[in-house]
Design a protein that fits this description.
The complex is a heterodimer of chains A (266) and B (313). Chain A is an alpha/beta fold. Helix content of chain A is 42%, strand content 21%. The longest helix of chain A is centred in the N-terminal third of the chain and has 19 residues, at 36-54. The radius of gyration of chain A is 18 Å and the shape is globular. Chain B is of the alpha/beta class and 313 residues long. Chain B has two domains: 2-144 and 205-311, Rossmann fold, CATH 3.40.50; 152-195. Chain B is built from ten helices and ten strands. In chain B, strands 1-2-4-3-5-6-7-8-10-9 form a ten-stranded mixed β-sheet, sandwiched between helices. Chain B is globular, with a radius of gyration of 21 Å. Classes of the chains: A alpha/beta (266), B alpha/beta (313).
């Protein structure tokens, strides 16, 4: 397993690639979730990636431009660049691991990015954990979460701004400080305009794991996707929102179900 | 400019990143950045990456790394304080040797700050020339907070249960069925929590409990940075160094406190982060050049006899 830079000088990306398995039947590219969710889950997904590698399923992890160890500042992060970066990481995985089957694996907004990446660069497999199916609603939740966090962690007793104020800032082409992350007007425009999910799954096999709260919104898309004839493994499992805080608790049910589906599909 | 490095630490390999200045400076000084608990080397809201970049732009080398078996380092290892301590020495030696450094400073956040204090005490001649401690974890009670993920400790549970009027509670237990039911539920929860606690928690509490004494003993200069909304600051001020029991006030310029107004534990706003970054660069420049650092946007005040510098209005 080794860390490396890839991409171009002006758009340098960071990735971690497992040792080449000879030959890898299935390899995954992990698309991390958004902002602090990427940080809180980082160690746990790194560990799980190593465990999957031991099971013969190498996982390439990468940091979208503007995040983690990749170049740029967070203000450079946009949905479209994250999708392109996922595709570049897919190419890296093909070059280094030459897998028989390649898939994207994502958590939360990372899962939504994985779907878009698969639409622009087809893969065999998609593993989606608690995907964000309504990005504009997720955007509003992010803003509301920020205001709540300011009150809890920074002891703010008076509401200095509300979500409408933040939207007004962004629409005036000014970035917003999202708990230390520079949230750009371009990212706002993309998230606010994010449309429906594709009518057909962009992969032959999809593993979609949802929490009970997400079942309703997920089922509507899953039902539509099943009509396409692709294999859709959909399960609703009672996992905590483990991305909300640091800790050693992992989504063990999601992990076990994913491994089971991956092994039965080979 | 960043470079990816691999550091040997015993039988483990550590994945690291070095920020290097674009022009070789006359004095080659490096800063080892020690991250928080269950975290990776770029840090919460990418703070460590930004600190590393700012230090490199100011002519310093900065090293960040993932501990043994964690994150991007190969292998799997449960994160312990001992493991973190074991990695500091090899990482610092590697950094000094590979980058031909004249001296090394330590910079840590939260538990990384506690690691910096313990590691510096164990390093002998290799002791860092100066340390900056951000949101220092020095109160052992804080390590059982949920965000550290180690479960509950019996002593805290017992302390919590023994508060209030015991007789009143006993009489209510006898007369109130709902109260009895809730007590039963609570005890079940407490037992589950205690059963789930990890042995590392007790070891960690012991290590964190020693940080105050190490702070007193270290002979070099230390700068402590806290956010005034950070519970770790309150606990440091009221429990660890109550009435200046560590004698930090007598140590003059060797113990400087900087306070980020409105700052939380991880300085999670762009303004707070920028303030900490500026102070970090000014601290490192002052240490390197042997001059007293002038911290930007700051004003001097007092807290229990200790000079405290906070952001100017």
């Amino acid at each position: 397993m080794g860390a490396c830079y890839f991409g171009t000088d002006s758009h340098r990306l960071y990735g971690v690639v497992p040792e080449a398995v000879d030959p890898a039947s299935t390899a995954l590219v992990f698309c991390p979730p958004f902002a602090e969710e990427m940080v809180t889950t980082y160690a746990r997904f790194a560990t799980w990636g190593k465990q999957l590698e031991a099971e013969g399923i190498p996982v390439v992890r990468f940091h979208p431009f503007g995040t983690g160890e990749s170049g740029g500042s967070f203000g450079d992060f946009t949905l479209s660049s994250a999708v392109r970066d996922a595709c570049s990481a897919g190419e890296l995985a093909r070059q280094r691991l030459a897998p028989t089957r390649l898939g994207y694996f994502g958590l939360r907004l990372g899962a939504s990015i994985a779907v878009q990446a698969a639409c622009s660069q087809p893969v065999d497999l998609l593993v989606l954990w608690s995907p964000v199916t309504n990005i504009s609603q997720y955007l509003r939740e992010l803003f509301r979460g920020l205001l709540a966090k300011e009150m809890v962690h920074q002891g703010v007793t008076k509401v200095r701004r509300n979500t409408q104020d933040m939207v007004a800032e962004l629409e005036s082409e000014r970035p917003v400080d999202l708990m230390g992350y520079e949230f750009s007007p371009q990212l706002y425009r993309e998230m606010a305009a994010a449309g429906k999910w594709p009518d057909a799954p962009p992969a032959k096999h999809v593993i979609w794991l949802a929490r009970p709260a997400e079942e309703k919104s997920a089922s509507a898309i899953v039902e539509q996707w099943r009509k396409s004839g692709s294999r859709i493994d959909f399960a609703v499992l009672p996992e905590p929102a483990f991305w909300e805080e640091f800790g050693s608790t992992f989504a063990d049910r999601f992990a076990a179900k994913t491994l089971e589906c991956l092994k039965t599909s080979v | 400019m960043t470079e990816l490095v691999t550091i040997r630490s015993g039988k483990w390999e550590l994945s690291g990143v070095v920020h290097a200045p674009s022009v070789t400076p006359p004095k080659r000084v490096g800063v080892v950045l020690l991250h928080e608990n269950f975290n990776t080397k770029f840090g919460t809201h990418r703070m460590f990456y930004q600190v590393g970049e700012a230090l490199a732009a100011a002519g310093f080398y900065a090293l960040r790394y993932d501990n043994r078996g964690m994150c991007d380092s190969p292998g799997i290892n449960a994160l312990t304080f001992d493991a973190r301590l074991a990695d500091v020495g090899p990482a610092t030696q590697f950094f000094k040797k590979e980058y031909r450094l004249d001296s090394v400073f330590f910079w840590g956040l939260c538990m990384g700050a506690a690691v910096a204090m313990h590691a510096s005490a164990a390093m002998g001649a290799e002791i860092p020339k100066g340390i900056m401690l951000c949101s220092l974890l020095a109160d052992p009670g804080d390590v059982s907070l949920p965000q550290f993920g180690y479960g509950a400790t019996p002593s805290r549970v017992v302390a919590g249960l023994s508060r209030g009027n015991v007789l009143k509670r006993a009489s209510r237990f006898v007369t109130d069925g709902t109260y009895r039911k809730n007590v039963g539920r609570m005890l079940k929860g407490v037992v589950t929590q205690i059963a789930a606690r990890e042995p590392e928690l007790e070891r960690l509490k012991k290590y964190i409990g020693q940080v105050g004494e190490l702070l007193r003993r270290y002979r070099g200069p230390i700068v402590l940075v806290f956010g005034d909304k950070d519970p770790c600051w309150t606990h440091f001020d009221e429990r660890v160094n109550a009435n200046d029991q560590l004698g930090l006030a007598k140590m003059g310029s060797k113990r400087i406190f900087l306070m980020v107004e409105g700052g939380d534990h991880t300085f999670s706003s762009m303004k707070q982060t920028q303030t900490v970054i500026e102070w970090t660069v000014e601290w490192a420049q002052g240490l390197r050049d042997g001059t007293a650092a002038q911290y930007s946007h700051s004003k001097l005040g007092e807290n229990r006899g200790i000079p405290v510098t906070s952001i100017a209005d």
